[in-house]
Amino acid sequence: MTKKQLQKSVDYLISKGFDSPEVGVVLGTGLGKLVEEIKNPIVAHYHNIPSFPLATVEFHSGKLIFGELEGKKVVVMEGRFHLYEGYSLMDVTYPIRVMHQLGIKSLFISNAAGAINLNYKKGDMMLLEDHINLQGNSPLAFKNVGEFGDRFVDMSEPYDMEMCKKLKTIAQKENISLKSGVYASVVGPQLETKAEYRMLKILGADAVGMSTVPEVIVANHLRLPIIAVSVLTDECNPDNLQQVDIQEIIEIAGKTEPKMIKLFKELIKVL
Fold first, then answer.
1. How far is 255 from 109, CA to CA, in rounded Å?
2. For residues 129 and 133, what is the distance between their CA atoms, to the nearest angstrom?
3. Residues 42-61, buried b or exposed e (16+ Cβ, 10 A)?
4. At 114, which CATH number?
5. Domain count along the chain
6. C-alpha to C-alpha distance for 135 and 265, rounded to whole angstroms
7. What is the extent of the structural domain holding 199?
8. Residue pLDDT, tens place only, 204-235
9. What is the rounded CA–CA span in Å between residue 55 and residue 220?
10. For residue range 7-36, what is the model confidence (pLDDT) as tens digits?
11. What angle do CA 48, 54, 55 make, to 5 degrees?
């Protein structure tokens, strides 16, 4: 990745009308309906953006959408990139750097995850308060990282405390159940074995997924305040493990989505 590449992507989006967005949003599996709420949307398909990776997962649609939400200018990433698709971590996090260059001041991330904490159930939402990176690499491990920010990034508080507090208050006010906990990020695309679920529990994870952490690391590298919410789509009980159906995961994410949209919209309003 070079600064020139990044600038080409940004210049293209500015030429399309992407004008100083304040909030960036990354939408996870089965969580695409937020885009229907955007006023005066301008769409840029990934394959048209110079240097942008392409989405390969069939249920990730692959476009950046700019517009207005709750009176704020937003840029929404519909379709994200994963290590399991064969991308590098630099590809996975490239859109975060582009959104930052466009001018976003805060970043919201959503994902679908499995519940390791057995007090959490299918359809619950979990606010990420910390994470465990089990992807075996870092999106900051490249030669010229110093051109983009500090090489050694503090991760003592990866998620913005202020936004987390606001989101909890909104959830309470709206009578929406919002758990909180630790998210473990694995490579995938295979799901975990019973032994792996037991290991994740011992490590202190409340949920497990295949995304989010690389984007969070880069957001911290860019000193970009970030918040992330998991929609828990399956229960990972090693003593009673059910086979997982990806269609069911998408269905559960879809059912919980209106609540997540409500939370994100209300938070955008008070930023």
1. 18
2. 13
3. eebebeebebbbebeeeebe
4. 3.40.50.1580
5. 1
6. 31
7. 3-270
8. 999 999 999 999 999 999 999 999 999 999 99
9. 24
10. 999 999 999 999 999 999 999 877 788 999
11. 125
